[in-house]
């Protein structure tokens, strides 16, 4: 089956041009003017539309077992909702329990992801350490297409890593040519603040941000960055939410360190006033970590994105329905952490980024697709409209609008953090692997059609950073 998309503006991270796009099988075959189409090809008129690489969400949690429950969105419903919003690939997380074999955990997640409708891949979290974990990190990179290892610096008593695990895992990741990543919050401090705040009688969701102030994130971000610097491993910070962490990233980048930062669409658009809402259900549905911040932090995150200090946008899509959130009715510490957004990310960033003039369409493509493809080493297979790339494409109608609501969205959650927000600029049509999976408001995704995408490790020069403290080769003192 072939498709020819005619007359749209093709937008890549570095260019915008009026061109046709020919898709043959699962790949882009040609991009150019007045292309000939094979007999029987479907013609799509894209006049007035932008033709862009499908979005890549580098941070999702489908059907994650977490905080005593399981995220309500599964790999089929989640990747379908993604397609409805113009996102054609996600990178989810294998999160082994402490002492669980990490290769077995990968296999368990892969079993779950067999139902995915769109392409996907896995980061693997390192939650404990011994020689078998070190060995299995090697197996995951060589045989299972994993090039990124994630570390939770928070969630004490569950999946939190101490510095010993960070140091062991970062240096192993470096030796393998993989990238390290962190959820940067000081879990010890969070734990202490949670106890103190609860003891003061603050039991509702307003206790959540009080126990996770920006300093807690800034400290952990800086610690992870410095550990990565000393060990010479590239580092990716997920969900950077505050000035404190952004300043640590900026300083490291200005020093030449290979550090990347992600921001969530929701941290750009929602502020911390949500936690003081009188409706417990509303406030609890915003409990995620790091929490939403004040407007001052939001403005800084936008500037970070505009300046290139932040490279990617994600969602941390981790859905819990109201009865699941109610596990924490009497204790904010028991509210499962997570919010929705995989269907909305592209539109809300278009609305508040492109339509406000903060981002150009090309910059939008960079931060919603291309940069993630480059950082996680799947470019130019993904993240670009060019011959040879996978045909993951979104035909974007910049004039069409939708008002976001849990009543009409495709995400498997009874709440939307963007409820009532009207966005102009939505997908008219989404193509995954050369097949139309969403068109004019209708999902056409197929259960199980999504592939697991292997991500090879990086060439050695990624890891050959010159350390500030090792400019000269270290030598012993001759005391003979
Ligand atoms: O609150 C969040 N972010 N839930 C998902 C797990 C994580 O920390 O990424
Ligand atoms: Zn996290
Ligand atoms: Zn997450």
Category from helices, strands and their pairing: alpha/beta
How many helices? Answer: 14
Calculate Rg over CA atoms.
22 Å
The CATH topology of one domain, please? TIM Barrel
Q: Quote the beta fraction.
A: 15-25%
CATH superfamily name of one domain?
Metal-dependent hydrolases
Q: What is the distance, rounded to the nearest whole angstrom, between the alpha carbons of the first and last residues?
A: 78 Å
Residues in helices, as a percent range? 25-40%
CATH class of one domain: Alpha Beta
CATH architecture of one domain: Alpha-Beta Barrel
Low-confidence stretches: none
Average pLDDT works out at 97
Number of strands: 19
- Compounds present? N-(aminocarbonyl)-beta-alanine, zinc ion
Main β sheet profile: 9 strands, mixed
Shape: globular
């Amino acid at each position: 089956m072939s498709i020819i998309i005619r007359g749209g503006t093709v937008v890549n991270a570095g260019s915008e041009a009026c061109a046709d796009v020919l898709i043959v099988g699962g790949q882009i075959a040609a991009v150019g003017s007045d292309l000939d189409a094979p007999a029987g090809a479907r013609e799509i008129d894209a006049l007035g539309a932008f033709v862009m690489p499908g979005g890549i969400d580098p941070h999702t949690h489908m059907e994650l077992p977490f905080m005593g429950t399981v995220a309500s969105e599964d790999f089929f419903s989640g990747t379908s909702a993604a397609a409805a919003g113009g996102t054609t690939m996600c990178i989810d997380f294998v999160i082994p329990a402490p002492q669980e074999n990490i290769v077995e955990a990968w296999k368990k997640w892969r079993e779950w992801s067999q139902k995915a409708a769109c392409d996907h891949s896995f980061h693997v979290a390192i939650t404990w350490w011994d020689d078998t974990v070190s060995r299995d990190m090697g197996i995951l990179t060589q045989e299972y297409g994993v090039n990124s290892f994630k570390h939770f610096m928070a969630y004490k008593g569950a999946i939190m890593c101490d510095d010993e695990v960070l140091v062991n895992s970062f240096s192993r990741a470096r030796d393998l040519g993989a990238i390290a990543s962190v959820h940067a919050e000081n879990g010890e401090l969070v734990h202490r603040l949670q106890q103190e705040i609860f003891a003061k009688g603050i039991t509702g969701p307003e206790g959540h941000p009080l126990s996770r102030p920006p300093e807690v994130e800034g400290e952990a971000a800086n610690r992870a960055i410095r550990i990565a610097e000393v060990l010479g491993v590239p580092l990716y910070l997920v969900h950077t939410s505050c000035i404190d962490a952004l300043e640590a990233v900026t300083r490291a980048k200005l020093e030449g360190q290979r550090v990347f930062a992600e921001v969530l669409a929701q941290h750009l658009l929602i502020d911390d006033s949500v936690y003081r809402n009188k409706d417990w259900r509303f406030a609890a549905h915003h409990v995620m970590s790091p929490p939403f911040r004040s407007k001052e932090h939001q403005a800084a995150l936008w500037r970070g994105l505009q300046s290139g200090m932040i490279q990617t946008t994600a969602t941390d899509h981790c859905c819990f329905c109201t009865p699941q959130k109610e596990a924490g009715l009497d204790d904010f510490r028991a509210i499962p952490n997570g919010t929705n957004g995989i269907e909305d990310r592209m539109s809300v960033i278009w609305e508040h980024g492109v339509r406000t003039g903060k981002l150009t369409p090309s910059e939008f493509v960079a931060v919603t697709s291309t940069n993630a493809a480059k950082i996680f080493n799947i470019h130019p297979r993904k993240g670009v409209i060019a011959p040879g790339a996978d045909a993951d494409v979104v035909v974007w109608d910049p004039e069409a609008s939708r008002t976001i609501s849990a009543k009409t969205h495709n995400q498997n959650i009874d709440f939307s953090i963007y409820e009532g927000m009207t966005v102009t600029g939505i997908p008219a049509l989404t193509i995954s692997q050369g097949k139309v999976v969403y068109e004019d408001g209708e999902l056409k995704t197929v259960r199980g059609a999504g592939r697991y995408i292997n991500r090879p490790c990086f060439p050695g020069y990624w890891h050959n950073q010159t350390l500030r403290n090792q400019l000269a080769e270290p030598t012993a003192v001759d005391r003979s």
